[in-house]
Structures are given as structure tokens and as C-alpha cells.
Design goal:
alpha+beta; Cytochrome Bc1 Complex, Chain A, domain 1; 2 domains; six-stranded mixed beta sheet; five-stranded mixed beta sheet; 13 helices; globular; Metalloenz_LuxS/M16; MPP/UQCRC_Complex; Ubiquinol-cytochrome c reductase core protein 2a; metal ion binding
Length: 425
């Protein structure tokens, strides 16, 4: 028996239509069913709770009734605690997180995490090292035990550590900015943050698991900003240059003023493949060179100091003009060349960027951990936003003057024939 091709196609289309209708009906039924369950009131999320235990552990938790827990251990063991004798040790600690400890081998740690469907990651910065674990709420206790062993019970077997040293690339950029003499060892876990667990449970676990792992800690000298210059001459046609000065301490009013100043000067395009038409840096460089070049202001705050400056990318023959044009824009703000419209736009950008960032659970955990590690307390988002609203035009002008009049630090790479030196600013 033979069928016409059009009949076969028609039959296939009819069958697919029936299947799609069934799927749509099933989806509609599921949505109605879900709607019935949504009428049941779910527990309201709690506010962030902070406690300091007798063993020195600072705990911050946020119970949001999620079935997924994010656990973070924040340790004061960043590169700023290194000495000349142990440069790079913080990077080795980060890489050695999954190695053998007193209770499990590296293979057992990996297999256990995979069996429970969780993950463990380690990140480091200048001041802190963060051990982050993500797991189901039912497996929290097992993950906490693994996390404590990874951070405080490592064995550092010589044949395992020797394989890591070749992977370490010592980052010495901050040496051009700060000088300090302090040790890297920090046996106390000074801060811990968890999302999606009761504070009472976390407090009990912290007291039990870390009660016998308390150490003396170390005294840390205040970082002293010294300035300097680092020039890397190579054959690259583009010159990358950073000119910085001392900024504000984390959480201070001065740091908030530098944040607003950063947005006034410009941090890059806010539209994909768009031009940064509100950036004073981009407008000033375009006017001075009649060509568009990349430029952005940056602002970094630490527990006892900070950095503020501008970053430019330009062709080698125009690098000097671009850098001087960028510095001229900061000098213009220091002379009072800032309007209320600039202030409003910059504050809106700071507010929007902060609120969008804390919508992510990972970023929120980092924010809570960073605050509790520094001050043993946590400020709610609306309190943080109020500090931004209080920044005045005079505060921004004062911050710009600190950059203009302060000791400069410069780092540049590329064909530097036409790139000015730091003492020319």
C-alpha cells in the first residue's frame, strides 16, 4: 500500500500537534497545582545574625530556608602576611586545600564531595583566604567537618607540596604600593559565614569542631603606602598604564567618597559594545587626542589602607597624551569641576551595582564575611546605601585632591618610549 507524500507529512504534523497539546495541558495542570501550593505561607527569611565565640571564631549566618547551604570560612592569610622568606606561601596554601590531611586523603576528599553532590573551592586575595563549600542542608554537618579538616588539619606531605611549587606564580604587584612586615601564619579561623542554616546549629558546630584548634594568631603591622614605579618594556604596540595613589580604608566615609569619584570619572561602558558617554575620562581623552581610547578609574579598599587611580590603554605613540588627559580629568574634579547631575548619576550607579551584586548568594556571602572579618559586625544593605547618600560634593573634591597631591605609583608595560615617568605627574 502506498501513501502520497503530503498525506504522510499531514499525519506526522497531526501527531506532533497532539503531543504538543498534551504537553501544554500537562504544563497547565502543573502550574495550577503549583499555584495551589503557593497559597501556603513559607517561613520568612531571617536577618543576619553575628556572634563571637569564646574560641575566637566570629560567626555570621543568614537563615533563608533554602535547601542549599553556602558555607564560607574566611581566614586572615592573604599575601600581605607574607615575608621575604616565604613569598608565595599563601598561593601554596590555596592550591593545597584538596591535599591529604590528618583525617582523609586527597582522593577521599574528592570522592566524598562528589558522593554528596557538593563542591569546595578556595580563593585568595591580598588580605584573606576564603574556603567555600556548597551542599544540601541535610549534609551540612559532614561538609563542616570536611571544611574544618581542610583548613586546620593539613599535613603538607613533602612529595605533595613539591608538586605545587612549580604551579605558583608569585604576584608582586602590591610591593610597588605597600610595605609591611608581618607573618603569614594564622591558626585561628577568625570568621565564618553560612547561608541557609540556623544560627544556633552553626554556633554549636563552631564551638565543638574548633574548640581544640585555637592558635595564638599573629600581630599585623599597619600597611604603609610608599609609592613607586614599575616599567616593563616589551614589543607590545599597546601601552597599559596604571597611575594610583593612596585611597580610603574599607568602610570609612573617605572610601565611600572615592567610590562616588570612581563612577564620576567612569568605570567602563554600561551597555554591551557601547561607548561610555558619561565618563569624564573617556570624554577628556577623546577631546585631547581626537580618538577613542580605553580608560577607567579603579578603587580598592583594604582594612588599613586603599588604592585609587586610573587605568589606560593606548597606542604607544599616544600613550603620554592619553595618560596626561586622564590625570587632567581627576585634577579638574579636584578643582571643583563636578555638578549635581554628576553626583546623582554616580550615586545611582554605586547603589545599583551594590544591590545587583548582593542578589547573588555567593557575593552576599563574601560581603557578610568581609564585614564580619574586619569589624565583627554586619551592616544591612539599606544602612550601606545610606552611607552612599551622605557623600557630598565637597567629599568627592577632597578625595580627588588627595589623589592629585598624594604620592603616585605607576605601573606600565609595552613600548614605553612615549610613556611619561611617575615623577612627571
Amino acid at each position: 500500500m502506498f501513501y502520497h507524500k503530503s498525506c504522510v507529512v499531514r499525519c506526522v504534523l497531526e501527531n506532533w500537534k497532539n503531543v504538543l497539546l498534551q504537553k501544554r495541558c500537562y504544563a497547565a495542570a502543573r502550574s495550577v497545582e503549583a499555584l495551589k501550593f503557593s497559597t501556603t505561607a513559607s517561613p520568612a527569611p531571617q536577618d543576619v545574625q553575628v556572634s563571637k565565640l569564646t574560641n575566637g571564631l566570629v560567626i555570621a549566618s543568614l537563615e533563608n530556608h533554602s535547601p542549599l547551604c553556602n558555607v564560607g570560612l574566611f581566614v586572615k592569610a592573604g599575601s600581605r602576611y607574607e615575608t621575604a622568606e616565604n613569598l608565595g606561601v599563601s598561593h601554596v596554601l590555596r592550591l593545597a586545600a584538596n591535599l591529604t590531611n590528618k583525617n582523609a586523603s586527597g582522593l577521599k576528599i574528592c570522592r566524598s564531595l562528589e558522593a554528596l553532590g557538593g563542591s569546595l573551592s578556595v580563593t585568595s586575595s591580598r588580605e584573606t583566604m576564603v574556603y567555600t563549600a556548597t551542599c544540601l542542608r541535610d549534609h551540612l554537618e559532614l561538609f563542616l567537618e570536611t571544611l574544618v579538616n581542610v583548613t586546620t588539619a593539613q599535613e603538607f606531605r613533602p612529595w605533595e607540596v613539591s608538586e605545587l611549587t612549580s604551579r605558583v606564580k608569585i604576584d608582586r604587584e602590591c610591593e610597588a604600593f605597600f610595605t609591611s612586615t608581618s607573618c603569614v601564619c594564622y591558626t585561628v579561623i577568625p570568621s565564618q559565614n553560612i547561608l541557609g542554616v540556623k544560627h544556633s546549629v552553626l554556633r554549636q558546630v563552631g564551638e565543638e569542631l574548633l574548640s581544640d584548634r585555637r592558635g595564638p594568631g599573629v600581630a599585623t603591622d599597619k600597611s604603609v603606602y610608599r609609592g613607586g614605579e614599575l616599567r616593563v618594556q616589551n614589543s607590545d604596540s599597546l601601552v597599559h598604564a596604571v597611575i594610583a595613589s593612596e585611597g580610603g580604608v574599607m568602610g570609612s566615609a573617605e572610601a565611600n567618597a572615592f567610590s562616588v569619584l570612581q563612577r564620576i570619572l567612569g568605570t567602563g561602558p554600561h551597555v554591551k559594545r557601547g561607548s561610555n558617554i558619561t565618563s569624564k575620562l573617556s570624554l577628556g581623552i577623546g577631546k585631547a587626542t581626537a580618538q577613542p581610547f580605553s580608560a577607567a578609574a579603579f578603587n580598592t579598599s583594604y582594612s588599613d589602607s586603599g588604592l585609587f587611580g586610573v587605568y589606560t590603554i593606548a597606542q604607544a605613540d599616544l600613550a603620554g597624551e592619553v595618560i596626561h588627559a586622564a590625570i587632567a580629568q581627576v585634577r579638574g574634579v579636584a578643582e571643583g569641576n563636578v555638578t549635581e547631575a554628576d553626583m546623582t548619576r554616580a550615586k545611582n550607579q554605586v547603589t545599583a551595582e551594590y544591590l545587583m551584586s548582593v542578589e547573588s548568594s555567593d557575593v552576599l556571602m563574601e560581603e557578610i564575611g568581609a564585614q564580619t572579618l574586619t569589624t565583627a559586625a554586619y551592616q544591612l544593605p539599606h544602612t550601606v546605601l545610606q552611607t552612599t547618600d551622605t557623600v557630598t560634593q565637597e567629599d568627592v573634591v577632597k578625595a580627588a585632591k588627595k589623589f592629585v597631591d598624594g604620592k603616585k605609583t605607576m605601573a606600565a608595560s609595552g613600548q614605553l618610549v612615549n610613556t611619561p615617568f611617575v615623577d612627571e605627574f
